[in-house]
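Per-record layout

source: Evansella tamaricis
name: TetR/AcrR family transcriptional regulator
length: 193
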Amino acid sequence: MAPKNKFTKEQIIDCAFDIAKVNGINSITIRKVAENLGSSIAPIYVNFNNVEELKREVIRKLIKVSNDILGKQDSGNPFLDLGVASILAAKKYRALFTDFILNPNTYLEEYDRGMEQTILAKIQSDQSLQGFSEEEVMTIFLKMKIFQTGLSIMVGNNLLPKELGEEQIINLLEGTGHDIITAARLRKENNND
C-alpha cells in the first residue's frame, strides 16, 4: 500500500524553494525537505521520482516568481525594468541567485528558456530600439544582460560602495542601457555611411 500523502505537491515545492532561498539550489535534498516538513521521505517520493525532478519544479517556481517581479516593473524602459527586476531578485533571493548564477548547473538554461517569452515581449516594446534588426536587438540585450547580471551579483553580495543607494543603482542601470543603445545606433549609422 502506498504511503499516505500528508503534503501537497505545492507544499513540498514551497519547502524546497525555501531551502534553496537560504542555501542555494544544490542544497535541496529529499531528506532535507522531509526534515523541514517534519515528515519521512515517503510523502516526497509519492510526488516526485527523485530530487532532480523536485529541483526542476523549484526552477519553475523561480520562473513564476521572476515573472511576477518583472511584471511589477513598468518604467517605460524595458531594459531598465529587466535590470531592476534582476537586482530585486538578487536582493530577495540572495543565496539562490548567487548559487544559480555562479555555480555550474543545468538550471540556468532552463530558467532562461522559461523567461524568454516575457523578456522578448518586454524588449520588443522598447521604442528606443526602432530601426534595429532582431540580431542587433539581441546583441544589445546580451550586452545589457552581462552588465545587469554583474551588477545584480554585486548588489546581492553587498560588493558595491556603501554610499551607492538604490536610486544611484537604478541611474547606473539606466545610464548604461542608454550608452549601449547609443553606441549601437552610432555604429549602425557609421556602417551605413
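summary: Residues 9-192 form a domain with the Tetracycline Repressor; domain 2 fold (CATH 1.10.357.10). The chain has a mean pLDDT of 89.
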